[in-house]
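As a warm-up, study this chain.
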Amino acid sequence: MRVLIDTNIFIQRENDHILQSDLQKLLNVLNKLKIEILIHPKSITDIERDTNEIRKKIMLSKIKTYSLLESPPEPNDNIYFLNIVGFPLKPNDYVDNSILYSVYKEALDFLISQDNGIHKKANRLSIRDRVLSIEDALKIFEKILQIKM
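Now compare it with the structure written out below.
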């Protein structure tokens, strides 16, 4: 099983703050289940736009420890998809659309995101069952872990 975490989850995990307990638990459960945690290549692009050079260098060094989603599908050629989620107006919209498109085209099993905009778009695409908040992902994967134990 392959799970993609969005840029904000990555930053939350890797910054210099205390990690939210639900995210700690979720990452532990995913590890126990041997689920591959992926980063979308556009998350690197997202981090490269950070104007804080020190933080940017730190985050770029940390993101290289993750497996990247290889050859992700490109959303810009799918007008049907773009009509549903909206054409990107800002660089961040393009990143969000690219990440969502990977779920939509089944390049991965689940996306974990706390971004309400991503969740709204997932709902419009009828893929909300595969775009999970940390809390929902924790519930689902804890149940899977209990079954496997």
